[in-house]
Extracellular solute-binding protein, family 3
Amino acid sequence: MNKSILLAGFTALLLLSGCGKEQDYLVVGTNAAFPPFEYVGGVSGDQVMGFDIDLARKVAEDAGKTLKVENMKFDSLIVALNAGKIDMIASGMTITPERQASVDFSEPYYEATQVVLVNKQDDSIHSLADLTGKHFAVQLGSTADMMAKKYTQSVTAFNTGFEAIMELKNGKVDLVLFDSEPAANYLAKNPELKLISLDFPPEFYGFAVAKSQPELLASINKTLATMKQNGEYDALLAKHMK
Ligand code: ARG
């Protein structure tokens, strides 16, 4: 066979398989250190699972695609989305005006708030005012990270909330500022800590897509609305929230 025909054939094949890939997968980015929304576990111990992942699987299914999860640093998610490396962020991400400048969010799917974790013997925090000047540990690029700066100059940021909690347990910081559900989840495994609820404003989690993907956004919102209506959303809440 003529070489150029062969080459053309290969190119066509490559193109075809390339197209197929894009259409078959919904690539979802997350930072799987945020139980019960996303964490690593399962039989193999390296499976990404959780509330967000179950919701994302349904979104993919409704869009006729297979879910593919990419686990990455939290502060890389928006960059990866806008670089086209992932199609959607499902990562307990709070809808904020700053983020809305660079990505589009779905309708909110969960209401949360920040809470404070301290070592059990610490009795110095009873109100937001008591946070002034404390040494905070937070997750890098999180809403806690942004909020901490209102109270103090001493903020140490980590790639995961888990590392922030280790720092607290080692007595290197005064407190961890973290989202309510994951904080309660970590607390259950760390009885030497305690959780303090203060008057922090509510935060709403949304799935994020690139601004160039209005159809995907509409499809996510449709899935969420259907799941809220038919009880699947509540069933997932019951499965994941203790
Ligand atoms: N809700 C917070 C935020 O949007 C923290 C989210 C952290 N999520 C995660 N999967 N680690 O900044």
In short: The radius of gyration is 21 Å. The mean pLDDT is 93.
